[in-house]
Amino acid sequence: MHPILFRFRQLGLYLLAWVPLAGILVYLLVRAGESWTVAAALTVPLCFVYAFLCLAAWYPCRATPLEQSGFLRLLLTHFTAAVLLSALWVQLAKGLATAFTHWGSFAGLDERAAKYLPLLWVTGVLLYVLSVTFHYVVLAEKASREAQERALEARVLARDAELKALRAQVNPHFLFNCLHSISALTSVDSARAREMCILLADFLRTTLRVGGQETITIEEELALIRGYLAIEKVRFGARVQMEEKVEKEAMGLLLPPLLLQPLVENAIRHGIANLPEGGVIGLSVHRNADSVSIVVENSFDPDTPSALKTGLGLDNVRRRLHTRYGDDASVSVGTEGNRFSVKLRLPAHQNGDQG
After folding, report:
1. pTM higher than 0.85 for the full model?
2. Is it the case that residue 165 has pLDDT exceeding 70?
């Protein structure tokens, strides 16, 4: 199917480009002795019909792409088509002139038109060549657009595959740590180990429900974090405390599922777990005009070697944000005294937004 035949805006622009060509032919016939009325009556319908005939150039152009066809093949294909199409146009001109001859003001037009036919034939060949050029430009634009669409699709598929792979890292990493904790508890407190297993099962059931989604609300992510903390409190008890400072208007904002849980997990494993008296995890969420800022901070022992800045959880969060949002998101870490903090910035999207 021709790419512009049923696209009325493009077809209209194409036909409009023929108006000056028709005007030139009218002018040439007037210079040859015809009146403006006769010249316009003969030329305008001929150009209109030939404009549609020249659309047929799309098919030989598509059959002989420039980058894959030799010069002789291109010349033979388009020269043959130009000769045949121009000859058809000349026959149409003869028939139209003959039809007009029966009208009073057009008497003898068929005889006079005979001397214009060579000019029409040459003009038809040149117009076909222009049409071939136009169609090769259309084909090049179409190929470029398709290549861009394929590249975009490939980038989207690659991004989705990487996001799925990164998201798949979260649960095994978390599960390994939980099982390690359960194993440690079984030898000293089997009841607490059993309670931890139940909480773990509930937590994993919830993560399976939301894990297949691209995004969840901050409110849902907070519920996941609370479920995770309930598991850890079986082992650490009151040593682990959490303070939330979440703006109400930020609760409905979207973020990738299980994005903050690895940060809370890091805060416990590499920070509070090393403090005999325990510590406090702080979570604050603040909405800006077009972004949301999230800070997770915790107490830690500055004298204890820590893998906080290079741990799998933090690296996973950084890569997930970069893959999904690119430069629109950022992750930064810092320490101040005995407080370690991770600051996230990502676009403020809600349900219904294009994210």
Report:
1. no
2. no
